[in-house]
Amino acid sequence: MHCSKCGALAAQGAAFCGSCGQPIVGYSVAPPTAATYAGGTAATISGTTLSGGQREYAGFWLRFVASLIDGLIALFALGIVVALVIGFIGIGTLREQFEQMGHGMNGPSPVFPAMLIVAFLAFVVFMVVATWLYFAGMECSGHQGTLGKMALGLVVTDMEGRPVSFGRASGRFWAGRGISNVPSIGGLYFLVDCIMAGCTEKKQALHDMIASCLVLRKA
């Protein structure tokens, strides 16, 4: 119980408040906080309202549009990287080397095709790592979501509505986009992942279940 004037905790049966000295003529109950959620009252955790245990889960289409936005951002970033590489090497040099490649790998300049293969593999590794750091880093940050999710007011949380760690966000990424890009099984896995995001009770995709995560709408 709390003092009706200053809100300080008052001892049971006390005649005066030990903080402000005001005579105790009535008590008021302090407003509930996030700590009272365990008791089932109400709480606000990381900007996501959880009232009476009811949570507003993000459905398939909201998540789909957020993914499209992130895809467009990735394409834009990829275009910038490619333009910088072409500008650094020079269009004329690239045209000349590709013309020489027309003679085969054993043509006048066999070094360039080998360098091209190595550069391609390095680029693929770079893109995978950059994508992982983008998704995991944004989802474990204060924003709790990528730019696409932020645009639609979505956040990634654990099963209790709390922010996720970088490790959990990384597990969610590799269990989703990571496995979806594996040859032969990625397509089927991606299809199952999408279906589950639209059909499960908490709108969890398979990778959400594996990482014990939720995607919620902000209050």
Shape: elongated
SS class? mainly alpha
Spell the H/E element sequence: EEEEHHHHEHHHE
The parts where pLDDT drops under 50 for at least 5 residues are 26-52
What's this, in brief?
With 219 residues, the chain is mainly α. It is 50% helix and 10% strand.
Notes on the protein architecture:
- 50% of the residues lie in helices and 10% in strands.
- Helix 3 crosses helix 5 and helix 5 packs across helix 6.
- By secondary structure, the protein is mainly α.
- A two-stranded antiparallel sheet has the order 1-2. A two-stranded antiparallel sheet has the order 3-4. Strands 5-6 form a two-stranded antiparallel ribbon.
- It has seven helices and six strands.
- It has two domains: 45 residues, no CATH class; 158 residues, no CATH class.
- It starts with a strand and ends with a strand.
- About 12% of the residues have low confidence.
